[in-house]
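Hi P.,

Sorry for the delay on this. The queue was packed all week, but I finally got your sequence through. Input first:
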Amino acid sequence: MSRSSTTRRYGLARIALSVLLGASALTSCGSGGQTITADAKTGNRKIRIAAPFISTMNSAVLYAQGNGIFQKHNIETEFVEIHGAGGLQATLGGSTDMAITSSVNPVAALQQGQEFPIIAQIGDGFPESVLITAAEWKKSGLKDDSPLKDKMKFLAGKPWGVSSPQGSSSYMAKYMFQLAGLPDDGFKLNSLGSAPGTLAALKSEKVVAGSMGSPYPQVAEAEGYAKVFIDVSGGEVPELRNTVTSVVAVTPEFYKNNKQLVADFRQALGEAQKLVYEDPKAVDEWIYNTHFKGSPKEAVLAGVQDQRDGGAIAKQPQVNEQSAERLVTFMKATGQPVPDDWRKIFVDLSG
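Then the structure:
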């Protein structure tokens, strides 16, 4: 591995960590540790959850909110759209009570001395898959089942669109170059701000490849301008399966002061996660009609099924040690600092 490649990796890690460092300024003015009491009229406890965007990966938590599962446990939820590590910042400052965030963010925060207990998992595999333009797919001469090394060799040096330089898609791309036995400086990052921005760049052929979560890859393929090249969320890359990716995090004070609420939240989430796998037709129809209507229905349903087939949507809120250790392996391989005491922020591992 080249020295310049290593420098770039740590540069990306520092960008991500700088966002979290900025969060510490909110500590003094925040109320992230407050005890949530039941409403006198409804008996429900109201929580605000920072979430980056509507995604099929969040099927369980969305379904739990929209179909009365949280309410059955006397919990009312409000989702607040906040991207990236900003969800942790908002939670630390008291603007939200919980944050759905990439698992790397609480680990990176711990490295900086700020703990965010991880109380549940949303994703147990990488939600993003890799697209290439239809023209490049034809030019590649490759097949769906071509080896990962051949696919990554084809992508080396070609412009690759992602939402953010410090997002999981960027690190995932570098990791796949490593898994293919290729130098990861073949990853030519183009930061495009969002999944729609990446799709627009693919459609106009300003980039050759792009990575994003379902159902966007399936929709792009249905519309004919792109092809799912590496089906990561469907399990094509075994090393990226069974890895804690998306989690629910809180502040230590909130966890300490709301143990029963956290337990009830986990139970409700677990019930919804079970339904995602045991009653997929009902869940998927609701997800489509509520959040994705207007997009090609079969493509959206295919996107949810793809993540289910690959086990990317977590089947339970509990985090197992193997999934957490695979996260740590991924982070270390991509130059992201991991403290030795990382287990302490996983409530299922810390005891």
